Amino acid sequence: MSKINNLLDELEEQIANYSKFSLTISEGNVGWHIVHSCLVVNSVCGAVLKSDASKFIKKFSFKAFLVLLINSFPRGKAKAPSFTVPSEELSPANILQSIQDARKSIEALSKADKNQYFTHPIFGDLNTGDTFNFLGVHTNHHLKIIKDIIK
Questions:
Q1: CB neighbour class for 70 (10 Å; exposed up to 12, middle 13-18, buried from 19)
Q2: Could you tell me the residue range of the domain that residue 118 belongs to?
Q3: What is the rounded CA–CA span in Å between residue 119 and residue 50?
Q4: Residue (of 57, 38, 55, 54) closest to 46 by Cα position
Q5: In total, how many domains does the chain have?
Q6: Spatial separation of the C-alpha atoms in residues 114 and 139, rounded to whole Å
Q7: Whole-number CA gyration radius for the chain
Q8: Sign of torsion, CA 81 65 3 46?
Q9: pTM for this structure?
Q10: 51 sits in which H/E element
Q11: Tell me: the pLDDT tens digits for 90-133?
């Protein structure tokens, strides 16, 4: 849990750069990447918390294993689901609110049963522990993009 909270701290440090963009790096600006990361945290945590732990069945996924092992996603290979795309005008205030909401979601996830899960469209079912790892890798992926944008 502390890893994802540290990553949320790093996102918060980038709020001042929210309007910066580089089309050679990404179509989204820094604010878009921050809010997208938070929307992913919120939606994934919500799915885990609604899940029935008794229905979790561990299945090996080579793709999930590889991503979680190398702690990285390839760039430009996946499209963000519509519910994780920021839909409102971005401002420092609503970006900060997104980060605060993500912190609450992480706190709630920390109280979930170890076998509560969410189903990722590529990686399959990820239990609570793997979900924390996935959220860390995903958030770090977008932090790397943010850092490249502001170079």
A1: exposed
A2: 2-150
A3: 12
A4: 38
A5: 1
A6: 21
A7: 15
A8: positive
A9: 0.95
A10: none
A11: 999 999 999 999 999 999 999 999 999 999 999 999 999 999 99
